[in-house]
Structures are given as C-alpha cells and as structure tokens.
Structures
1.
Amino acid sequence: MSDTPQTRQASEVDEPAETAPTTTTTTRTTTTGESDERVREEWRDHEFAGPAKLSVEDLNVHYGDDHALKDVSIDIPERSVTALIGPSGCGKSTFLRCLNRMNDRVSSARIEGSVTLDDEEIYQEGVNLVELRKRVGMVFQSPNPFPKSIRDNISYGPRKHGDLETGLLARLLGRADEDEREELVERCLRDAALWDEVNDRLDDNALGLSGGQQQRLCIARCLSVDPEVILMDEPASALDPIATAKIEDLIDELSEEYTVVIVTHNMQQAARISDQTAVFLTGGELVEYDATGKIFENPESQRVEEYISGKFG
Ligand SMILES: Nc1ncnc2c1ncn2[C@@H]1O[C@H](COP(=O)(O)OP(=O)(O)OP(=O)(O)O)[C@@H](O)[C@H]1O
Ligand SMILES: [Mg+2]
C-alpha cells in the first residue's frame, strides 16, 4: 500500500527542493514542450570574486493578478557584464526595471523583496529616485534621443540634475559652464565610441543620426550623469550587424568601469559579451545563474539546456 505510485508521487512533491538528494531530477514534458523540473537552489547560487554591486533577495512582482517574477534572488558583481536571457514574457524587462525602481511608475505593479545597491536598500522609504536613476541608468530597446541637438542630448541630463553648476567637476575645475559642457560632451561621446562620427556636427538634430548612432548617443547620454550601473534592455535588437558589433565592443569596454546588466534575445550575443548569465523561464522564475561559459556549455537544468538549444521559447 505504502509503495503505490500515488503515494510515491505525493512524497516527492512534498520534499523541499533544497534537501532533494543528488539523484537525477525527474522531468516530464509540459504542453508547451518544456521539461517540468523543479528549480534547485544551487543552480542559482553563482559565486564570484569580490563584492556584489547589486543584491536581489526574494523579489516578487505582480501586475494585478499576474505573478510576473517569483522569488528571484541573485547577486550581480561590479564591473562586469551580466546577461539576462529567457523566452518572451518571462519577466526579464520587469526584473531589469526593478533594479532602478522604474516599475514604480507602473500603477498595477506590486513589488516585494529586497534590492540593495552597495549594500543599501533601494526599496526603503526616503530613497531619492532621481539620484537612484542617475546611479543606475537605463538604455532602452529603441533608441530614444531627445529631438534636440547631439550636444544638448548629452548636456541635458547633467544640467537637469544641476551637476554642471554644482557638480564635483565644476567645483574642481572652477571653469565656465560652457567649457565644462564641451568637455563633458566630448568625453561622453568618446566613451560611447561616437565622437569620431559626429564631432563635426554637434549642433545637428540627433534624430538625423542612424539607428546605431542614436543608440550610442543614448548610451553617451546615460554616461553623462556619471552612473555606476547601466541597465540595457535589448539595446541592439533593432540594429544591423555592424552597428550591433559596435555596441557589443562598447559594452565590453564599459564593463571595465561600470556594472552592466543586459537583456538580450540573442544567445550568441549573451555568450560573446557577458561574464555571467541568468536564465529566466516561463512563469517568472530564475532557473539558473552561472558563469556564461557554464550556462552555454554545460547547464545544470534540462529546461535551460532545451531553451539554449532552441527546443522551445
Ligand atoms: N506594465 C505592465 N502591466 C501589466 N503587465 C505587465 C506589464 N509589463 C509586463 N507585464 C507582464 O509581466 C510579464 C513579464 O513581462 P516582461 O515584459 O517583463 O517580459 P520579458 O521577459 O521582458 O518579455 P520580452 O522578451 O517579450 O520583452 C508578462 O506576462 C507581461 O504581460
Ligand atoms: Mg522585455
């Protein structure tokens, strides 16, 4: 009686994932063709050298009744590239937007859990959201420059935040606003690998640039307020291969100084540019997080392996 298939199945379901024995995980196939396996804690527990820039603990996001992110815990190391991959609708953008509280703008969103930036809770009361979004900047899928000159696109952010008048740079240099502005514009455009292409037309409208140039301008604009973390949501998905290669080279360079978190649908891109990769799967679960080489060559989860090899998603 105690050995009927029915009771065996019930005891398997009751067993907590973290105490599961090290036997092979039993999987079935769901109607969408995915394997039905339980996420194991150790698949998501990526160790890296050095302190975490961002630390996410038990993050849950609901949009009304829709549970978009489930119990996500992950540490993101500084000065590196972390890729977020997974099928459409699995919560990648939602997760990214939680890292600088952009989801606060979505009235139906309910966010629970903890996100720390340099060990400080960003979801505590009294956090200055303008300051937070300066430290954790964002670049979107479609380039969205302001309909202003190339120069103004860069100097607008610092001027809005008052940095050109009162910022450290201004105080140290003690120079006229104009000089500081020109210096900042050049530095940001150089850092975004765009200077050589636009330095003779800084007064032209930014909307006259190509898509790839506009996206680099948006990255330059993001750099102009001196961020520490740069969040990118599919920044190259609308670009041709040459523009994409430029963005990828740029991300590689930026990661020497900044912490970059990037959502991409392009597996080769994730494999090429990231140091570690987090895989989200349907239902808003973070299934596996590890060094990028490990995720792409030898993932622990069968579902991750199936996703990466293109069996679903
Ligand atoms: N503003 C919103 N209001 C209501 N539901 C939302 C909102 N944004 C996202 N969702 C829902 O949350 C879930 C996750 O969406 P999200 O945009 O984070 O997925 P994604 O992984 O970025 O997908 P894609 O790869 O298509 O961009 C989806 O079910 C989506 O419908
Ligand atoms: Mg998205």
2.
Amino acid sequence: MEIDYDYFSPASTDIALYKKLIKKQGELVCRDQIYVDIISKSLRQHSFGVLAKTRQASTGRNSPISDDKWSLLGFATCEPFDDDMDTVILSLICARKNQKEMGKDLMGIIEDQARQLGYKKIQLFSLPEPHLSRWYERLGYKKGYVIPDYKTGTNKLVTMTKKIF
Ligand SMILES: CC(C)(COP(=O)(O)OP(=O)(O)OC[C@H]1O[C@@H](n2cnc3c(N)ncnc32)[C@H](O)[C@@H]1OP(=O)(O)O)[C@@H](O)C(=O)NCCC(=O)NCCS
C-alpha cells in the first residue's frame, strides 16, 4: 500500500480536501475515541499539521468511506501556544488501528516540522488513559501537571512536553 504523508497549513492549496477528509473519516481514524466536534475544533485552530492517506482500492458498498477517492490513515494537528512563542501545542493525533507505527511516524513528522518552524518545545494534553501517557513517554514526552477537562470539568488531562532542539 502506497502511503502519502502530506504536510498542511491554512495556506495549503489542498487544505479544503484535507479538512473534508479529516472531518469525514476522522472519528473512524480516531478509533471512535474522539468526536467530530473536537476534530473540527482542532482544524479551525490549526497552524500546521500532517496527514497520511492512501488511494481507495475499491469502493465497496459497505465501506464507510466509499465515496471518497482517498482513505485517511492518520493525522495530527498543531496550534500555537499564546503564552510561549517557543512552544507549539499538539492539538490532536490519531492513527487508524493496525497501521504499524503510524502514530510514531506522524509524531516524528510533526516534530521535524515544528523544529523547522523554530519551535523548541511541543506540549500536548493527554487523555487520562495510562496506555496513552506510556506511549507518549516512549516518544520522549514528560508528564507535567494534571488539569480538569474543560468540557466535563471532571475528566483529567495530563500535560506532557518534549524539548525538540
Ligand atoms: C495515540 C495513537 C495515535 C497511537 O497510534 P499507534 O502508533 O498506531 O499506536 P497503537 O495505538 O497501535 O499502540 C500504542 C500502544 O497503546 C496500546 N493501546 C492502544 N489502544 C489501547 C487501548 N484502548 N487500551 C489499552 N492499550 C491500548 C497498544 O497496545 C500499544 O501498546 P504497545 O506499544 O505496548 O503494544 C492511536 O492509539 C490513536 O489514534 N488512538 C485514538 C485517538 C487518541 O486517543 N489520540 C490521542 C489523544 S490524546
């Protein structure tokens, strides 16, 4: 399977296609862990991002993505951090199940892009699932403080940061 990794920003020529793909297939790619309103919010605020896509092999009637030419395999979006010009926030990262190392690859691309744009640190807000913070820790992110989820006020999010210089 041939996979395209596309870097994007609000000025990208194909930004409308990318947004459509992510909004339409995002929940599936995010393994139904993240809903379309959060996905759309991350797109509204994004300053740059990356997506992995592959051409649809067939358009089976039962496929939830049959009317698109592209199958989205993963994506990540970043937004600036108003309080610190050296830091960029990773708003969202999702990778389809069974795409070996896809999440890790997307993180690597995001880190390279952030470095090229002059950022020195990446910060993210991890959902409280232990497997997720362990995954980020394996990629070099360090746990910081815990904050309540702004939406529910109860779920905790863990801030995690990585120096990238
Ligand atoms: C985070 C994510 C991008 C990582 O993608 P990936 O590189 O393909 O990695 P995987 O999901 O396959 O696996 C990461 C590890 O977490 C484990 N894991 C994944 N989902 C899990 C779950 N629901 N419960 C327990 N463990 C889980 C895997 O077994 C794996 O552990 P291992 O490395 O020890 O085998 C991907 O899990 C994802 O899209 N998750 C849903 C959306 C999400 O939660 N995004 C992060 C928001 S903070």
